Please model this.
Amino acid sequence: MIVTLDGPAGAGKSTIARKLADRLGFAFLDTGAMYRAVTLAAVRNQGPWDDPRALAGLARQCRIDLDGSHVRLNGEDVSELVRTNEVTSHIHHLADNPAVREQMVELQRAIAAGQDIVTEGRDQGTIAFPAAECKVFLTASPEERAKRRVLELQARGDQISVEEVLEQQNERDHRDSTRQVGRLEPASDAIEVSTDNMSSDEVVDRLVEIVSEKTQRANG
Ligand code: DC
Model:
């Protein structure tokens, strides 16, 4: 069974997807980490930011391995390095690139093949796994999402204000929802869940219910 979990940055997807996968005994796929890993490779290579074909070529040379919460780039564990603000601010060069997205989606499908999996991102229910049995779209208000991001960045030692994060987040939301390929939007058959004022465990409880309803319907 494939469970897709899409939604904007800071809606709590990663934490929730991990916990949900644990509860269900499913594998977990963090597709944002894939885009982050190829972006880290491009940052190290200093782009070239104005050459989409070269960036796609660079991405093609990257070997990305995902193992639970760890991401490896050509064998190197870059799980922490991919979370920096520098990587985040360059991601759009890769995430807006249709040839890069095609490679990432291909890799996502190869990883998911034959597995029970919770897969988390922006386009999982729409592009990567349009036939997934259970699709969820997680949302939260922009302010709540920015506050969560600040806490996450501060925990990593990045000092940044809520206002700054909110500005970057608005820009990222705009890019995510207007890109030509793989834009952020709920699949027509996705269930929308708002995480405002809910703890991650409460959200996970709700998602477990949704998955079991879907499973019962599929079996009965
Ligand atoms: O979920 P995240 O913040 O780690 O994602 C990082 C970036 O990657 C985000 O700006 C959007 C992009 N992304 C994407 O375009 N498609 C996905 N399936 C996952 C992430």
